[in-house]
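Worked example (supplementary).
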Amino acid sequence: MKPESLLKNALNWQPGRNTTEGVVIGSIVRMVRNLPDFPFPGWSTEKVRNGVAETILPVIKSIRGYKNAACVEMSDLSYGIRRALLTRKQLTPCMAARQDGCYVVIPQKRPVCLMVNEEEHLVAHAFRNGLNFDDSLDELEELDEALQEQLTFAYNSQNGYLTSIPSEAGDGLQLYCLLHLPGLAIANMMNQVTKALEKLHVSISPYFSDSQDDTGHLFVLFSIPGPEDSIEEIQESFTDVVNHLVRREQQVRRKLLNTPGLYLQDAIGRAYGLLTNCRRLSIKELRDAVSLLRLGTLQGLLRWEEDEHTILVELNRFGLEQATITALAEEHGDPGLCLRRASAARDFLNNHPHHFSDTTI
Amino acid sequence: MFLTQIVNGQVSELALCEACARAKGLFDPQSLTFAEKFFPEEFRNKLDKLVRELTSGEAEAAPAPSYGSMSRCPVCGFMLEDYRRTGHLGCPDCYTVFARELDPAAEITASDIDESPAVTRARLQRELQHAVEREDYERAARLRDQINALPATEA
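After joint prediction of all chains, the assembly is encoded as:
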């Protein structure tokens, strides 16, 4: 199987449709399972990893919907494709560092990604747009049932499904949310938010794994699994936290818009000016500017001929497309890439008729 | 496998055949790299011990552990110190082997830690029967070996 087919299938899921209040871009459920007779991947030999792959892969390929899935060994994946899949959350940082005996499987039509010999023997991620865990949980339950018809997973009544990290044993499920939080980020409130979330067994980190900062104001919120919590309890409390964050983000956006100094209007206007006139554009500048354009659209500063929902999806698609192109280009110092990125940004604005109308002044 | 250790300018060189290297847990470069990266101190200690053993020709006598509180998993070779350092376990059997460490309360509430092998034996035997029924003989053979490797229990 060609590595490119993996990326092609990965692009089938476009985060950004049906966002919740323009804040929750997507939801991911992570399911982990281990085989009882093999050491965990972090402590196993290549021979053992191959044994795990030979046990799990034929079973995956026998399941309806996964028969024609793209399946590629990590050692066959270029650094660029790894970065592109990382950008789309269809590869974990742990998996991106793996080599022989470790496989990524992405089906053609299902919004699911499977990793064999990641930190656990089998890791499955199910993706949905907006705040929607129910469909992903159903999808993974169906997959789990199909797998368990042919495989026995490591399980005991005291700990639940066994994982390489004992504190994560239990249902073997974890929830993630992709959030766009420009208000909280611009107001420098992310440190406060992070500290408050820690007390609720929830963690938050920048979306882009290649950066330590909050480039693009995109974040990943994730539940920290506890052995005594059921997935229903985690889902309920996690959804409460997400909804609370959404309300807080909207409050801060309104507050920033009403600040006499017009800082937010200024930032959005500058971002618009940058994308309209730039000739060279770094990926960080592009992520930040696209984020502010999304915010400007949601707050009515940027008006488009297309409807708001369509243009928000298009802005997301454009941002991720450019991130993928950058990941595949590999060469960070390529001056041509900055020029092409700037040209693509100008083209995007030219192809989507709009006008900038700051009615707050 | 050729192993070169340099400590304070002193060079120790070892040459091990595949079988000996395997017996010492030194058969996979990737896991060696992993061990060196994540457990540098243990990795150095292990190499020190290995060099001492092989150069003196005497292996250190290992203490007889009790199941549930062993310092080394007999199935995968993972050390209790490794878990304390990283928070990770080596294999699903480590849950039983390091039961006391993972759940200190179990030490008080469990009727007897010596029951663990019996419980494990019963579970493995059930799985063995299931594997034979499904004609999964490869798994059945592994389960049989695991049962044989368990400490003997009184009838």
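Two points are worth noting when inspecting this output. Chain B touches chain A through 24 residues (CB under 8 Å). Chain B has a mean pLDDT of 66.
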